[in-house]
Amino acid sequence: MTHYNEAIPAAPRKPDWRDKAACRSDNTDRFFHTTPTRVQEAKGTCFGCPVMYQCAQGALHRGEENGVWGGLSEGQRTTIRKKYKIHQLQNLDTVKTAVDNALRAELHPERTLRDLWDQHTHPLPGGHIGWHGPVGSFSFHGIPVTPKQLAFQIDRGHKATGIIRRAPECPVVECVNPRHLLDNQERIQRRRAAEEAAVQAAAQEQHAADEALPEAG
Ligand code: SF4
Predict the structure, then answer these.
(1) Which of 2, 49, 174, 197 would be 22's cystine partner, CB 3.0–4.6 Å?
(2) Atom 5 of ligand 1 has which residue's CA nearest to it?
């Protein structure tokens, strides 16, 4: 007896998508374990199943409370059922969207910031770096990120403070070389360092001028 046939007890039926179930000759118990490792094993079968969405749709409609169905755990099905009205789940495309969203992290492990950077940047002459990824801000783990923020975070290992601007010495408008970028905090530090250097230079100049004066008398 398969996982699927158990949920829909033996009854004469016409051939349908259930005949393509990856679990059709599987041990039913496999899909009803509760330890995370065993749940993931069952999900692994579903992720390779050609009728995963149809199976998920059926389980959502029947209100299956236990086990893995259509790649979804009990908690994931509960979340979907809270989010969608039952009539919306009659549409297979809606089910696909709901399932894909629920399983995104499992089916498509998120790329890292470094992956995005490597994929969307290219070298420019003079040590500058160009960006050919999404224009403006884009979503990463649901958080909007700009190319400059991405560059800054990868290079500095932390998020920027305030607005990121090109350093004055970088003349290339589209450059995202993180070493050519400064956030608010770094601009303030730079300005203070420049002011201190100017004060020191003025003091040294004054000292040199004093030294050069002929002694009175
Ligand atoms: S999605 Fe999983 S539970 Fe559903 S039919 Fe396929 S293998 Fe069986």
Answers:
(1) 49
(2) 21
Atom nearest to 70 CA in ligand 1? 1
Q: For the segment 181-214, what is each residue's pLDDT rounded down to a tens digit?
A: 999 999 999 999 999 999 999 999 998 888 887 7
d(CA 208, CA 197): 16
- Contact residues for 44 (Cβ-Cβ < 8 A; gap 6+): none
- Name every residue whose Cβ is closer than 8 Å to that of residue 122 and which is 6 or more positions away in sequence: 129, 130, 132
Q: How far is the CA of 187 from the centre of ligand 1 (A)?
A: 56
Q: Distance between CA 27 and CA 2 in Å, rounded?
A: 6
The ipTM value here is 0.99
For residue 128, the model assigns a pLDDT of 97
Q: Identify the CA nearest to 22 among candidates 48, 41, 1, 43.
A: 48
CA distance 37 to 17: 28
Does 49 belong to an annotated binding site?
yes
CA 51 to centroid of ligand 1, rounded, Å? 7
By residue count, the chain amounts to 217
List Cα–Cα distances, 193 to 12, 148, 167, 181, in angstroms. 83, 24, 15, 17
Q: 52-93: per-residue pLDDT in tens?
A: 999 999 999 999 999 999 999 999 999 999 999 999 999 999
